[in-house]
Structure formats: C-alpha cells, structure tokens
Design a protein that fits this description.
Blueprint: H1 3-16, H2 18-33, H3 45-49, E1 69-77, H4 82-100, E2 134-139, E3 178-184, H5 187-200, E4 205-216, H6 245-251, E5 267-276, H7 278-281, H8 286-293, H9 330-334, E6 345-346, E7 349-355, E8 361-371, H10 378-388, E9 395-405, H11 417-420
Antiparallel strand pairs: 1-3, 1-4, 2-3, 4-7, 5-8, 5-9, 6-8, 7-8
Amino acid sequence: MTGSARMSRRRLLGAAGAGAAAVGVGAAAGVLADRTLGPDPVANAAESAAPVPFHGERQAGIVTLAQDRMHFVALDVRTSSREELVGLLKDWTLAAERMTRGLEAVDEGAVGGPRAAAPKDTGEALDLSASALTVTIGFGPSLFDDRFGLAAARPAGLTRLPRFPGDDLDPARSDGDVCVQACANDPQVAVHAIRNLVRIGFGKVAVRWSQLGFGRTSSTTRAQATPRNLFGFKDGTRNLKAEETAALDEHVWVQPGDGPDWLAGGTYLVARRIRMHIEIWDRTPLFEQEDIVGRDKGEGAPLGQVKEFDEPDLHVRGEGGVPLIPPTAHLRLASAESLGGVRILRRGYNFTDGTDGLGHLDAGLFFVCFSRDPHTQFVPMQQALSTQDKMMEYLEHTGSGLYAVPPGVREGGFWGDTLFT
C-alpha cells in the first residue's frame, strides 16, 4: 500500500471514528476509577502493597519492579535562591522517604496538627498501604543556568533533544527544571505523593505539566509478564531487565568518567507523551497491524517465530523473498541489531485524557526510558523510528522532556546532594 493511500485512509477513518470514541471514554473511565484492576499478574497482594526501600546506591523507580500506576510532574523553579532550592530538596527527600513507607508526608500531618492551621498532609492516602510507591527525581537542562551557579556542572548529555520528523510538541507539555516520577500499585498513593511534594514546594516551584498513567507498558524484571499497550500488542518484550546487571552498567548507569562526578551512578530520563490514533488503528486489518509491529498479536512472537521470547530473525524471508519482518516494522527499526547495539530501559504507561473535542480519544503511551547517554542511544533510535517506522502513521508525539537523574540517596543525604555539595 502506498503512503498516499495510507494517509487517505487515515483521514477517512479518523472522521469515522467519532461515534465509537464516546463508548471508549466511558470504558476507560471505568478502568481508571477502579483501583482494584490491573495489578501485576505475578505479584501477590502483599508484594503489591509492600514498601520499596528509598535509600540506596540508585534511586528507586528505575529498575524497580514496574508498578501499575504512575503520576509524573515537571516543575519550574520559581525561587532564585540556591539555599532555598537546597532546602526544598531536603524537605522533599524527608517527605518522599516517609511516603514510600506508607506514612504521611510529615508526622501527624493530616489530622494531628492545630485545627486552626491548614494540614501539612492532604490526607487522601490515610489508611492506604505503601503500595510499592517509588519517587524518582531528575533535573532538566534549564536548571543549569546562572540562577544557582550550576552552569559548569551541566553534563554534556543534558542538552535538549532535537526535533524529530513528525513531532507536534506542545511547549506546555514539555521540558521543565525538575521532574518527579511517582509510581505505585494504587493510583491514589501516587497522586498523593506528587500532590504533597508540590504543596511543600509552594512559592518555590510551580507545576509546568503533568501526566497520569495506568497499565504499565513494559516489564523491568523477568518476574513480570509482558503487558499490552493500547494497540493491543505486547510491549517491551526485549526491554532491559533488572537482572541484567552488566547490560545496565553498559546502557543505563552513568559511569565515572562519562561526565561530571555528581552524576556517576545516575542516569538520564527521557519522557515522551505519544498520542495514539486508536480509532484509525482499530479499523486496520490484523495482518497489517502485525506487519507494522513485527510481531503476532496473540502470542507476541516475532513474525516467523513461535513464542514471544524467541529471538527475532531479521533475515528470514517468505514467498518471493520478501522479509517476514518488513523493513518498516517497529520491531526491526527499534532493535539493537539495527541500531549498532543500542539498548534502553523502558518504563512507560498507557494514558487516556478524555477527548480531543472532535469525538476521538486523547489516549496513548506516556513513554519513559532511562539511558546512559540519550544522545547516542535514544536519539538515533527515535530518528530511525520517526523517519522509517510505518507505525508513525498512527502516532503523534505531543510532549517531551529530558532530565539528568542523580544517583540514590544515602542515609542522611538528600535528593541531588552530589550536585549541590
């Protein structure tokens, strides 16, 4: 099928999808409202509720067993005082550590303080478990300006991502001085964490943009089953896993000598809000969907193979010598074999944000990945996908951000202490 034919069909089906979208909104809202849906199939209730240690060599929320829900926020720093910023990071660290243990942001914060004063904890997580909450912080390129004397400490890899073909980025959904990612198995626990950190930062930071996510779209350990994205395909089968420690050192963790000492042991976070034109996809024949992805939809096996975890054979051909995995297939273009060995750690989530005003769901993938150097890993991968991937016909990148994620917090330390001290 020619590109012009595909685009013509896209415009036609996009208009036709308006009636179906209203049903989809109701269904999606029901899923989001029910906190009991969607726990990881291999995790029991105790594991889903248990605390994840906050302190350690690395920040939690990167190779941690991926939780089912996410609340991501990017903030602009309003204070121009380095001392106030450091003080805020210390306050945030104390609050985040408490909340990951299932406690209030501050002791007796919700109901134990003076009745004449505003509570110091918003209270919506009272009586809820820790729900495996992790809270992860990152610093954007714009933080490293003259305000805080950080210009000389900016890593070379922390420069804004280039504009890729097909990008339709909304500045109001991109960038930010600081990002915070809260993941949990209960959406209210994740929202509580972000809400209280923002409350603590009142007057010093302001929300630039945020994103709620449900239904993880990748697995970070071998213990997890592979989830499905909103196109209905298993997603992240070949993702890096926590058990692959040597590969993580090579592809995820910043090593000594890569850049400034403060980031050694940390990583880089790329966030991309990707709207999926699901009404159009839903009217695409199954064989074409599978050719676009490069896998069968049921088992998730690479085309030409039998099982999900069978290694793809990018050279196998069918009738007439045509490759079974097409040259424009997502699997082929995103594979390490096609990218000179490049790999990343994915940690994304599905989202639905109502409708676009034209009767179509504003839904898709909130893509999050971690890498040792985004400009030699994510950028060439996205360049290949944005220029050759047939799936791009159904996608629209509407938000973007890049952040340096400092190493973990030691006992008595605070978020970013390696940068500021």
